[in-house]
């Protein structure tokens, strides 16, 4: 059985022009600063949001030019530039503004806000951990509007690091799929299986290895579904589905999985109808991941098949 994602994963939405040419044309990027907007992200990766939109402040509030640690996020449809910075958040008292975490409440963001916040979170998290050269330990400084860091002694540049990970729905080719619970998760919270790609490994090979390591199943017919940035702190989730044999016994080989089971499409549909782990899910046997995760979209897309 083959299927596709029904919707674009929430953090994969595109709502603004990334305007990557401006990262190297710094004069042009800085020239847009007087009319630019600024997204503030705090140390907990929270932002201010109002009516489904991230609150964007006048960039000039941060000075006459972009601060050294500001990151260029792109350009809105009206041409205005958007930058991001680490900053404490100060919600105005006279406006309906909330402090929200993209990871837990990203489903309320509109397309533009989802893209801007995901990009800012990923870049700022990288800068937080890349302040020194991995080669000789020298302090590095931001370049290319926040899209790189340079060692001023050697001239060596470093670029934002992405950690690719696969996430896979294992099914039997008919109406059953595997869901598993990690050891640190609460009771009843189940999802599909995921793991980081190793050096010298393809995505497809990683799927086969991770499923075998985590639950002991041998899977075949690995097919790509889609991808989603997961900037917590800097991952890229690459989604797949694969076929497994329900007659093969589970074995939890790496200690990450507490339990796993084959669930029917009807059981999964029922769990989806009851909400997700954030809403409690009522008395459902299953609590499933929230909509911000590509796991939810993969599960929903499989469950929607006839």
From TrEMBL:
Cofactors (names): Zn(2+); Mg(2+)
Gene3D superfamilies in UniProt: 3.90.79.20, Nucleoside Triphosphate Pyrophosphohydrolase (3.90.79.10)
InterPro entries in alphabetical order: NAD-cap_RNA_hydrolase_NudC (IPR050241), NADH_PPase-like_N (IPR015375), NudC-like_C (IPR049734), NUDIX_hydrolase-like_dom_sf (IPR015797), NUDIX_hydrolase_CS (IPR020084), NUDIX_hydrolase_dom (IPR000086), Znr_NADH_PPase (IPR015376)
Transmembrane portions of the chain: none
Alphabetical GO biological process terms: NAD+ catabolic process; NADP+ catabolic process
Keywords: Hydrolase, Magnesium, Manganese, Metal-binding, NAD
Cellular component, GO annotation: cytosol
Catalysed conversion reaction: a 5'-end NAD(+)-phospho-ribonucleoside in mRNA + H2O = a 5'-end phospho-adenosine-phospho-ribonucleoside in mRNA + beta-nicotinamide D-ribonucleotide + 2 H(+)
Keyword field contains Cell cycle: no
Superkingdom of the source species: Bacteria
Family in the record: Belongs to the Nudix hydrolase family. NudC subfamily.
Protein name: NAD(+) diphosphatase
Species lineage: Bacteria, Bacillati, Actinomycetota, Actinomycetes, Mycobacteriales
